[in-house]
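Trying the structure run again after the queue cleared.
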Amino acid sequence: MQIWVDADACPRAIKEILYRAAERVGMQLILVANQPLQVPGSRFIRTVQVSAGFDVADNYIVQAVDEGDLVITADIPLAAEVIANGARALNPRGELYTQDNIRERLNMRDFMDTLRGSGVDTGGPAAFSNAERMAFANRLDRLLASLAQQGMKGRESPG
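Done. Tokens:
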């Protein structure tokens, strides 16, 4: 399993949490962006710079992600695509996107786009808070522990 990050819009605090988690559990962390990124030197952390353009980083992630991987993104259409490919998606505010909730999130996103398109000021997302940073860190820790547990079960010999 690898962790993929839609890194262009990912808050710095979340990247810092991910760097520490990758080191702690020895898992590959790949940050995809259309600009150069500075990351800690680590055999577990790498960056992929894609060309600028609409959804170029998203498309790269969709094509590269494997079943069971984890994608960090606030982009709901990207989350829907990786979930359809058998991966997991977690947003930087700590919300896990699932088969059960992704359709609702897509519908709400489309509704808000329609409102904005008709001139309604819907405001933007709330400022990123410490509580959300903690929610993300806690959810990530639970996911990684669960995946480690599943990996251990898969290596046990029967009987």
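The helical segments are 12-25, 56-64, 76-84, 102-117, 130-155. Worth checking whether this holds up in the mutant runs.
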